[in-house]
Amino acid sequence: MAYKLLPILIVYAWYRRTHRGKEPTPKEAARLSRQGRLLYEALASLGPAFIKLGQILSSRPDILPPQYIRELEKLQDDVPPADFSETKRMIEEDLGPLEKVFEDFKPTPIASASLGQVYEAKYRGERVAVKVNRPGVKRMIEQDGAVLKWLLRFLGLFVDKNVAYSISSVVEDYLEHVDDEIDYLKEASNMEMLAKELRGQGVVVPRVFREVTSHRVLVMSYHEGIKISQVEELRRVGVDTQRLARKVSRLFIGMVLDKPIFHADPHPGNISIGQGGEIILYDYGMVGSLDAHTKKHLVRLYASFSLRDPKSIVDELLELGALDPEANRYVVERGFELAIRELGGESVAEWEFERLMDLANRLIYRFPFKLPRQLVLYMRMAGILDGVCLKLDPEFNLLKIIVSLLTEKGYLDEVRMDNVRSFISSMLETIVLVNRVGPSLLRRLEAQDFTNHRGGRQSRMAVPSTFIFAASLLYLHFNVHDQLPAYLGMVLAFILLLYDALKR
Questions:
Q1: What domain range is 269 assigned to?
Q2: Do 259 and 351 share a domain, yes or no?
Q3: What pLDDT does residue 143 have?
Q4: How far apart are CA 420 and CA 427, in angstroms?
Q5: How much of the chain is in helix, strand and coil states, percent to nearest 5?
Q6: Is 255 found in the same domain as 169?
Q7: For labeling, which of 94, 243, 345, 346 is most exposed (least CB within 10 Å)?
Q8: For this UniProt entry, which segments traverse the membrane (predicted)?
Q9: From CA 102, how far away is CA 123, in angstroms rounded?
């Protein structure tokens, strides 16, 4: 393992240290692509656990350059099925003799992946799907996990602290969630929770048969449909694929915003469309959740993009723990300002998600970003979701969907009003501070003959400044979509008053 990964890591570390913040030359980009292919081949040859890890790394542009990511995106989870005799032994250890539990059990799996396999069977007269751990998968994960943890200890020798943090975050998150993925009692609980949360939304979550479900075996109702990747077949049976793209994207983003957990693996194999147009979701081993703080600041981050405000974007990245606090704020804000200008358009809804991700990838790789574990699954889910929906509708825009949902649910207005309250609070604090400038200034002000000596000037300053401030508040009240004129009005009013006070 070491001889396969070490040369790749050395080249990668050299590039991070010598080219941070720079675009690679064509020659350097070609070299990175070759190294990316070597990494792809190494992970593919090391087995299912490393394939899974590579898939997760392919969604982490804060760690890997685009050339590596393009190669790792090719990693597939499909593997040859395990010998059925071993699978049968595992089922019987947990549930009892196969022929006594099931009326019928087909030995050829209908799906086979690195961590588990799915079979078709009949249970109490009902057609069911039986998901079973791949034989030996727990031992394999423990062994690979021990190796990965050992390798983490040496990361600091090759990469800077932010990259080491991000890679450690990926590995720890992977090892935590991979245990959840092979524990089918946890998956059963996820299914039951989402079945309750998504009831009445045109979504099918398979029913769990708890009496024949264990840590290694999951029995659920069987549901057939057309895979969401079979676009032409969907159109042939009359499905409006543009509408479907909107429906699926709103479903997954809505789970993030409103539900205690969200399905974090929307790849094409996990979504089908039933005869009645219902969305059938499979595989609930990989789910995510966002705590209140992360959800709040993720929403505010999108709102900051919507308002095209680089300063607020950086503020929210810091709140999310996604940016090194020691980073040069001016440089990072300038980077976002240029990126927003490059994207063009009147609003964030006009931006193409793929172009935004491309620009974000460049910014992330050039600046000291470090996506926290809380956001790992969300970012992975959003990237996969965008790709799935673009196949259904080439004009699909995920950012437009996100912004429309935030607007419908009132999140953007909440953020805007929070900004107003924060601004007014800061203004009041500044006024109080000015009033505490010192006894000498106060004595100077008190000594002035405001009526006879400065009365004319006071009226010229106080009246217009008060009018401007009041007009700004009215503008904020009636126009929440463009707050800049209001803020400028408030600042102008304050400057006039301050200037008048200091000149007396």
A1: 226-409
A2: yes
A3: 83
A4: 10
A5: 65, 10, 30
A6: no
A7: 346
A8: 484-502
A9: 5
Q: How confident is the model at residue 283 (pLDDT cuts 50, 70, 90)?
A: very high
Q: Are strands 126-133 and 203-204 parallel, antiparallel or unpaired?
A: unpaired
Q: Where are the extended beta strands (E) located within 393-478?
A: none
Same domain, yes or no: 24 and 98 = no
**Tens-place pLDDT, residues 228-251:** 999 999 999 999 999 999 999 999
**Per-residue model confidence (pLDDT) at position 346:** 53
Which residues partner with 129 through β-bridges?
120, 220
Look at 155 and 500; give whichever has higher pLDDT: 155
Q: Are residues 67 and 129 in the same domain?
A: no
For the stretch 370-425, pLDDT in tens is 667 678 788 888 888 988 999 999 999 888 899 889 888 887 777 777 766 666 66
Distance CA 24, CA 203 (A): 46
Which residue shows structure tokens 């240290």?
Answer: 17
- Bridge partners (DSSP) listed for residue 226: 273
Question: Which pLDDT value is given to residue 427?
Answer: 60
Q: Find which of 15-19, 303-307, 370-374 is predicted with most confidence, using mean pLDDT.
A: 303-307
265 is catalytic: yes
What is the C-alpha separation between 503 and 480, in angstroms, rounded?
35
Q: Would you call 374 exposed, middle or buried from its count of C-beta atoms within 10 A (0-12, 13-18, 19+)?
A: buried
The C-alpha atoms of residue 400 and residue 356 are separated, in whole angstroms, by 12
Number of domains in the chain: 4
Question: Of the candidates 182, 199, 222, which is a domain's last residue?
Answer: 222
Residue 473, number of CB atoms within 10 A of its CB:
14
Assign 3-class secondary structure to 236-250: HCCCCHHHHHHHHHH
Q: How far is CA 251 from CA 191, 262, 279, 352, in A?
A: 15, 10, 10, 20
- C-alpha to C-alpha distance for 45 and 36, rounded to whole angstroms: 14
**Mean pLDDT lowest among 117-131, 284-298, 332-346, 460-474:** 460-474
Integer angstrom CA distances of residue 375 from 2, 201, 226, 372, 494: 29, 26, 31, 6, 40
Asked which of 222, 244, 259 is the last residue of a domain, the reply is 222
Same domain, 182 and 310: no
Which pairing describes strands 203-204 and 279-281: parallel, antiparallel, or unpaired?
A: parallel
How far is CA 501 from each of CA 429, 450, 458, rounded to the nearest angstrom? 17, 11, 9
Helix, strand or coil for residue 226?
strand
Same domain, 200 and 131: yes
Catalytic residue (one of 144, 173, 265, 324)? 265
Q: Which amino acid is at 55?
A: Q
> Given a cut of 70, is residue 433 above it in pLDDT?
no
Q: How far apart are alpha carbons 446 and 432 in whole angstroms?
A: 17
Per-residue confidence (pLDDT) for residue 352, from 0 to 100? 57
Residue 452 has pLDDT above 50, yes or no: no
pLDDT of residue 442: 47
